[in-house]
Amino acid sequence: MPRSAKQKVTKAIFPVAGLGTRFLPATKSVPKEIMTLVDRPLVQYAIDEARAAGIKEFIFVTSRGKGALEDYFDHAPALEQELRKKGKDALLEVLKDTNMDSGAIAYIRQHKALGLGHAVWCARRLIANEPFAVILPDDVIAAEKPCLQQMVEAYAETGGNMVATMEASPEQTSSYGVLDPSAGASISGAVVAARGMVEKPAPGTAPSNLAVIGRYILGPSVLRNLNQMKQGAGGEIQLTDAIAEDIAAAVPTHGFRFKGERYDCGSKAGFLQATVAFALSRPELREDLMGYISKVAQVDKAAE
Ligand code: UTP
Is the pTM of this model over 0.85? Predict the structure, then answer.
């Protein structure tokens, strides 16, 4: 077993400094990560997933205008007192998930949105010589066993770097980082060895149909690669390029085909689909919502 495989992953970086332009005008004043699926902000799903995977330190890379995100994790004594007075114990319990112990959460500022790689690099001083996770809260994954937990378990065997992947159509791959599987690697198992990674390959040039989504377990050498501040696709400093550099330096890197349903909550269509899916999974909402959906579907069909 590689040496790094013995190191536990206890820190996670949450890059949330992007501009969120696809949700303007809302994101003019509301951080994308605070937008809610039913009644829980995207960032709560990300934190829950990280906790389930054994993460103890939560590092947010934020930017101007993300204050609501920082407030979200504070204790709210006046609100809690009011709920206690009214005997609303269930709501008090719900609030517990939103609280972070002092020192468990850190906020680092990315002064300019120079790319995901740059955002991760901004957190470098809070990561020692240890592996760390990266979670993009706008990728929400519904899974029986949370995605990062699945990855941490697989990583205990592989070490190196691990990126979550999903199958994408040829039309989709040009919007993602794409895995180049090692020669002879089986791409049907959960863990796929990589010999390269390409960010947003031009249509028709993708090395596989395995698109990288927003969950990573990375070694500290990726942060060192980012020191060079190389600009990649779209003029941004790309995390994909820093991982590809590791692969070129023979650091074992694997794609992980997680079990679960991923929603791209950075896009309006994905966000709406996630809203419906998460609402339908709530027993108190399901019947009403199903009734409404079938009514809309019938009206739509009649209009055809
Ligand atoms: P996106 O590509 O979704 O960009 O970033 P965005 O700015 O959030 O949204 P749009 O495309 O303008 O609508 C993917 C993730 O990387 C973070 C984002 O916050 C998001 O979690 N990111 C991106 C940064 O933290 N900094 C950056 O410079 C770029």
Answer: yes
